[in-house]
Amino acid sequence: xxxxxxxxPSTGALFDGTxxxxxxxGLAVRRVxxxxxxxxxxxxPGVDVLFQRQTDITMEIDGxxxxxxxxxxxxxxxxxxxxxxxxxxxxxxxxxxxxLVIAVPDSWLDVTSMADLADIALEFRxxxxxxxxxxxxxxxxxxxxxxxxxxxxxxxxxxxGHEAAPAMGLxxxxxxxxxxxxxxxENGLRILVDGTVIKSQSVIVGNGxxxxxxxxxxxxxxxxxxxxEASMRDRCGSYDQLVENLKPFAGLDG
Length: 254
Description:
single chain, alpha/beta, D-Maltodextrin-Binding Protein, domain 2, 6-stranded mixed β-sheet, 5-stranded mixed β-sheet, elongated
């Protein structure tokens, strides 16, 4: 029998939310101590729990070292391989709500929309340089910029708080995750009226190829989703949805 490898965020709000959700579902995780990166679920034999950084979970699933995991929807879309095996198994666990937004300095009084940002980018280009946007979500942001005809942009990687990047001269604009927008406002930044790249919350993703071809792991994934579904009173994806999501992988070699 193959154990299902279930990755959970190791820290932060998603760690807290996932821990509570699983406990509420009767799937409490048993972890020897907070320094251990492995655990189990006593009520559900056949599942190995792995604590990992949220930024790594989708890539680990695509690579086959993890079977399913809890991540933010934003991280799933940013990190997954375009033609990889990772699929969305559950599209909303009810916690971790946030959004990826594009924000400009308050001093840019005439820039309120993506169309205005496109004009500013052209103006920057006429002066010989690109508009610099700091973000950890470069794939999602670049795609959104392209969709809104914002050209001549350089994506900048900044360590630490992105909110300080414009004030420090490291970038002109930022694109970052926010829940309330308070930190942005405190740093003199304003979200564009149509500057929401994606709304996010916690989701469950999995390796479709593995689940479609391993009955033991599929059965364990089914139990997890069904218990979550019962706890959330039908607010989450059902097993029927899981099967539907795995149809493209049916018949593939493991």
